[in-house]
């Protein structure tokens, strides 16, 4: 601390104090009144003000109030010089912003000690200011980065939603509806369908482990392997000599994806999946379940039946084996593949809705179809969750088998 302003209407007292402080190495300025002190203070910065309490015109209390009302570049430590030791007077001084008091006539050692104490406080205040400046600067940089990242994530969400090119298609004898609701900007769920050759429909539900950008990138990669737009690159379809394509068995599709993930892509993520084909001539569905929640059949009477035998997720073990399962749909029945965001949804007490609760939601809304049913499912799930944010992505594939002819 170098700059001190001494304020006293007594020239002798000012001179004595100024000389004492100058000998201690401080830069000292003087003012003979409160008004003059404000003029000097306005012209230059000071670290500390030593002011007599009793002065004609503007006294020390009023000067302290005026200093505190001004916006200085840093904190100014204010010491009042007084012969008044009354506690009420000291309280008034503290109320207006005084930091310390020094009795008159002053003792040079006490003066030095109190100024040293003020210096320590000012030093801490400056360190705090610098810390705040650095924090403010860091927060500003973080906000800039966050805004940039947020814009990128918004675009990523649009791109991920575009992976579901169609949310509904009607083949005449069957129709498929899709729902995809990430719980964040982007998610790790993927649903889809494609034409799998004469009278056959392929459909799938995938849930990549984790959340965020890495999971979303993997869903984009998987979507390219199961794309209808490029049958020659769809691993579920093998081109025949006549140019048509035949279907790979669902368990072989799972095995091939498992090889890609464990040996070629070397990803740290894994995913669960339900993948199947519908034969529209017979209503038979062949599917493989790879650690995904069990599929559910919603019959014409509105009753639910969960089917499936679990299976291994894809990408955990390179030598994993996958099995084929079959089920035969009757006209009017719906087969639903869904992510665990539904069955693992929690209420405010942390209790999961599980298969039973999810089945009740489906049965309650069985009179609805397609998008209206999806909306009702989410609405009832939100009611179960008590309005709190969903902890996982929600995705669903609903296959409706209408007729065999």
What's the helix and strand layout?
Elements: E1 3-7, H1 11-23, E2 27-31, H2 34-43, E3 48-52, H3 60-69, E4 77-82, H4 87-96, E5 100-103, H5 108-161, E6 168-170, E7 174-181, E8 189-195, E9 200-208, H6 213-225, E10 237-239, E11 245-247, H7 250-264, E12 271-279, E13 284-290, E14 295-298, E15 304-307, E16 325-328, E17 334-338, H8 340-343, H9 354-364, H10 370-384, E18 394-401
Parallel strand pairs: 1-2, 1-3, 3-4, 4-5
Antiparallel strand pairs: 6-7, 7-18, 8-9, 9-12, 10-11, 12-13, 13-16, 14-15, 14-17, 17-18
The gist of it:
By secondary structure, this protein is an alpha+beta fold. It has ten helices and 18 strands.
Q: Could you walk me through the main structural features you see in this protein, from its secondary elements to its overall organization?
A:
There is one protein chain. This protein is an alpha+beta fold and 405 residues long. The protein has 2 domains: 3-130, Rossmann fold; 163-401, PPM-type phosphatase domain (Phosphatase 2c, domain 1, 4-Layer Sandwich). 38% of the residues lie in helices and 24% in strands. The protein has 10 helices and 18 strands. The protein has helices at 11-23, 34-43, 60-69, 87-96, 108-161, 213-225, 250-264, 340-343, 354-364, 370-384, and strands spanning 3-7, 27-31, 48-52, 77-82, 100-103, 168-170, 174-181, 189-195, 200-208, 237-239, 245-247, 271-279, 284-290, 295-298, 304-307, 325-328, 334-338, 394-401. The strands form 4 sheets. A 6-stranded antiparallel β-sheet has the order 6-7-18-17-14-15. α2 (34-43) packs parallel to α3 (60-69). The protein starts with a strand and ends with a strand. The model has no long low-confidence stretch (mean pLDDT 88).
């Amino acid at each position: 601390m170098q700059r001190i302003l001494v304020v006293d209407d007594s020239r002798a007292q000012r001179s004595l104090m100024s000389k004492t402080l100058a000998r201690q190495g401080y830069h000292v300025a003087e003012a003979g009144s409160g008004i003059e002190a404000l003029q000097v203070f306005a012209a230059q910065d000071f670290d500390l003000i030593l002011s007599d309490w009793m002065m004609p015109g503007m006294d020390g209390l009023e000067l302290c109030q005026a200093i505190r009302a001004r916006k200085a570049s840093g904190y100014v430590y204010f010491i009042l010089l007084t012969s008044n030791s009354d506690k009420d007077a000291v309280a008034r001084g503290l109320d207006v912003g005084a930091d310390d008091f020094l009795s008159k006539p002053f003792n040079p050692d006490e003066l030095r000690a109190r100024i040293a104490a003020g210096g320590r406080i000012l030093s801490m205040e400056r360190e705090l200011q610098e810390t705040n400046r650095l924090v403010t600067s860091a927060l500003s940089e973080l906000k800039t980065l966050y805004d940039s990242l947020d814009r990128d994530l918004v675009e990523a969400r649009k791109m991920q939603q575009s992976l579901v090119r169609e949310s509904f298609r009607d083949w005449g004898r069957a129709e498929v509806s899709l729902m995809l609701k990430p719980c964040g900007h982007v998610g790790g769920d993927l649903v889809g369908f494609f034409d799998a050759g004469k009278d056959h429909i392929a459909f799938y539900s995938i849930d990549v482990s984790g959340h965020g950008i890495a999971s979303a990138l993997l869903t984009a990669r998987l979507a390219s392997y199961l794309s209808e737009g490029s049958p020659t690159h769809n691993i579920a379809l093998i081109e025949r000599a006549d140019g048509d394509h035949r279907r790979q068995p669902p368990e072989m599709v799972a095995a091939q994806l498992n090889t890609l993930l464990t040996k070629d892509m070397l990803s740290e993520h894994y995913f669960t999946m339900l993948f199947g084909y519908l034969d529209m001539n017979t209503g038979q569905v062949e599917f493989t379940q790879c650690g995904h929640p069990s599929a559910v059949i919603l019959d014409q009477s509105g009753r639910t039946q969960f089917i499936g035998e679990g299976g291994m997720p894809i990408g955990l073990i390179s030598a994993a084996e996958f099995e084929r399962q079959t089920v035969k749909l009757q006209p009017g029945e719906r087969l639903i593949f869904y992510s665990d965001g539904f069955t693992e949804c929690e209420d405010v007490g942390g209790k999961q809705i599980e298969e039973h609760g999810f089945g009740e939601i489906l049965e309650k809304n069985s009179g609805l179809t397609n998008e209206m049913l999806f909306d009702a499912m989410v609405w009832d799930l939100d009611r179960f969750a008590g309005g709190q944010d969903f902890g996982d992505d929600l995705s669903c594939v609903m296959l409706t088998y209408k007729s065999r002819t």
